[in-house]
Amino acid sequence: MRLRVRDLVNADASLISRRCWSDTEVYALEKRGIFAKSWLFLGHESQIRFPGDFVQAYMCETPIILSRGQDTAIYANINSCTHRGLPVCRTDHGNTKRFVCPYHNWSYSVEGNLQTIPQESEVSHKPDKSQLGLKRVPRVEMWRGMIFGSFNENIIPLEDYLGDMRFYLDAFFDRFPAGIEFMGAPHRWVINANWKLPVENQLGDVNHGAFLHSAIIPREAQDTIEKLGYSVVTTPGHGATFRLMPEDAPVDEVAWGMEAVGSIFGGDEVQNYLREIQAQAVERVGDLRSRMKGLTYGIYPNLSFLWSNTSFKVSHPRGPGKVEYWSWAVVPADAPDHIKKVLRTNYSSFFGPAGILEQEDSEVWSQQFLGSNIDFADDRPYYYGLGLGEEKSHPDMPGLVSVTANEFYARHFFARWRDELQAVEEAL
Amino acid sequence: MSTLSIEVSPEQQRELERFYFYEARLLDNRQYLQWLALLSKDIRYLIPARVNVQVNNRERGAEDMISVERELEGEDSMGCPHREENYILLMLRAERAYKINSWSEHPPARTRRIVGNIELMACQDDVLTLVSNFHLYYSRPGNENVMYSGQRRDTLLATDEGLRISRREVVLDYANIELPTLGLLF
Lengths: 428, 186
Description:
The structure holds two protein chains of two kinds.
Chain A: E1 15-16, H1 19-22, H2 24-35, E2 40-44, E3 53-59, E4 62-68, E5 74-78, E6 93-95, E7 98-100, E8 107-109, E9 114-116, E10 139-143, E11 146-150, H3 158-162, H4 165-173, E12 180-191, H5 196-204, H6 209-212, H7 219-228, E13 229-235, E14 238-244, H8 251-254, H9 261-279, H10 281-290, E15 292-299, E16 303-306, E17 311-317, E18 323-332, H11 337-348, H12 358-372, E19 382-383, E20 392-393, E21 400-402, H13 408-426
Antiparallel strand pairs in A: 1-19, 2-11, 3-4, 3-6, 4-5, 7-8, 8-9, 10-11, 12-18, 13-14, 13-21, 14-15, 15-16, 16-17, 17-18, 20-21
Helix pairs in contact in A: 2-13, 9-11
Chain B: H1 10-28, H2 32-36, E1 39-47, E2 49-50, E3 72-73, E4 83-85, H3 87-96, E5 110-124, E6 127-139, E7 146-159, E8 162-172
Parallel strand pairs in B: 1-8
Antiparallel strand pairs in B: 1-4, 2-3, 5-6, 6-7, 7-8
């Protein structure tokens, strides 16, 4: 019997089937309905500053070369030779004039155009090289240095896709006079989990913190989140959680980065640098957003941002039960190098493959997959009903707003997910 | 590090092995608090990230072209190492193991490590520079069993209480991390 998408997520998305997380047919629909149609994050402008610079990326399981062309424009091409399909780029990042396939030495420019076919001179019918370049990702757009690609030629512009999420992202990006940059190559690790659980976790699930991470996170931190925390959904699938600090809160309690370990060990110089950024915050992002102290952010379908431990992350699926999770340390672009080196540990100490908190997240994400892949329990879908219908609009903050315990961020994600899968299911 | 280790007497070599084997036994027996006592309070504990780097065509034919060092994003790089820790962070990791709410430690993993190829590379006054290799078998409920493999580059201090680790850099043999966590004490 075929699975029907309407049986996986109920009308108000308060009940989510285990099959959403474990079924190969569902995963095939996700590729067609979501990854073929959405804007997917590729990288940050700071990673490809100069002509010839490239980094690797993925769009779902498809390997991508993101590069800066000799014309300084940004290109994204599928990393697969037109001749026999091998990856033509075999290193994580670098600078090059051409990508060469190891098999027969077909070579491509950094923009992805086919330059030479060594065997061509020996045959009389010359292939039309202009038609044989690497497959280009048809849409590539950038906002605030963040580069996205889409296989959907007709997708709405990136800025419209991000919509009101820009208000919350700018609360971070605009805080820094020269914006942000990514440090080095992403940490990449494989977790035996479904790609949507890291996404859901980073979209708004701050309520596991004081429980799963109770060995590290004190109960008082959870009390602050309960007292000052907000969860917002700007568009289904996009959301943020943050604390809105009181107007009279001391600068050290509001400033970005102050609560993380790198800054704590970094001493006066680092802390004064952070205070200085906060001192400009009202001017740069306005009163309300200057008091925002972010927690988790999510951009549909699989980009996450962790404000408190400054990192961008992408959950790349590798089948229903496996994720290649990528994460980058993010720092203010104009910070001196030695301060950047301290600030990167705000991320790496607690998150990433060695992170003292994330080691518990990846543990439960893989345990959740085990639970989702069992038999004889399909009449026990997962309960997503906490706070059902309790989200409301807010006079000063765009989107639907609620307390962080309200699981509406996940319900909205799954309602969108269901509709997008249904659209391709019906087209079959 | 492309030189022969310095000449040591069998007794000195045995002394270094005793230290490393004791350390390995403490870690495999989950006696992390006793392990902490082997650290110098100003310890620097590092795990560089490792990447697949582009080689420079002009260096073809030279060993340097594919040197391990170029693959490492360590503390001096503008990349992001996996770990850059001090004593307090290591203490946090060690003490976690004995809290009942450290979920990823319970039930605890079974580990078994073999430390070998112990080479004393330099010795100046009380400061010893060493390299050693390890294989660490790791088995946790609900996870596939995995093998960690790497090199440790240590600075040890000879003190009145015995040898103390004042710097450790762990070079892991992975770019993509297909391991449950890099949060272990290596």
